[in-house]
């Protein structure tokens, strides 16, 4: 096909990809732009018998690279390692994609290093008339979890008073060197 053709055929590791010159030139300093989009071929590259540019890279990781150039979004299938996409983005010299993948890897590492969220639970015993006040005055991150009726074991005057166990919780996010410390505050009643 003529050099000014709109479409470019790439043979990446034995897998064919077809894209437009406009897409491949989204990043002017990238390998792909220098390969096929500049007036004089800056990079000498072999072509196969079909006229496709030969690129000796893993085609599995080229899909996310090409899609990023097409629409500017990073989409990686769950079965692909982000580190593999990063390696290819660095090879193809697509700086904006390199930053984006590094940011995603860093975010994932931060999320996994925090570990699972742990909770501390408290069980408070109260009477029916104290229940509303207790629940409405909980503070410091304590949340109501469950209310368990334990009957009416107290009899004040002529009235039976129902009694409850109130289960409250809060996230336990204090940790020092991997040792989790339980907060010293108590659920306020």
Short key terms for the protein model shown above:
single chain; 189 residues; alpha+beta; Potassium Channel Kv1.1, Chain A; Alpha-Beta Plaits; 3-stranded antiparallel sheet; 6 helices
Any guess at the CATH architecture of the largest domain? 2-Layer Sandwich
Tell how many strands the DSSP assignment holds. 10
- What's the helix count? 6
Query: Can you identify the CATH class of the largest domain?
Result: Alpha Beta
Order of helix and strand elements from N to C terminus: EEHHEHHHEHEEEEEE
Strand content: 25-35%
Mean pLDDT: 81
- Identify the strand order in the major beta sheet: 2-1-3
Major sheet details: 3 strands, mixed
Whole-number count of domains: 2
Protein name: KCTD2 protein
Pfam families: BTB_2
GO biological process, one term: protein homooligomerization
GO molecular function: cullin family protein binding
Structural write-up:
The protein folds into 2 domains: about 110 residues, Potassium Channel Kv1.1, Chain A (2-Layer Sandwich), CATH 3.30.710; about 45 residues, 2-Layer Sandwich (Alpha-Beta Plaits), CATH 3.30.70. The protein is rod-shaped, with a radius of gyration of 31 Å. Helix 4 runs antiparallel to helix 5. A hairpin with a 2-residue loop joins strand 9 and strand 10. About 5% of the residues have low confidence. It has 6 helices and 10 strands. With about 190 residues, it is α+β, with helices and mostly antiparallel strands. This is KCTD2 protein. GO terms for molecular function: cullin family protein binding.
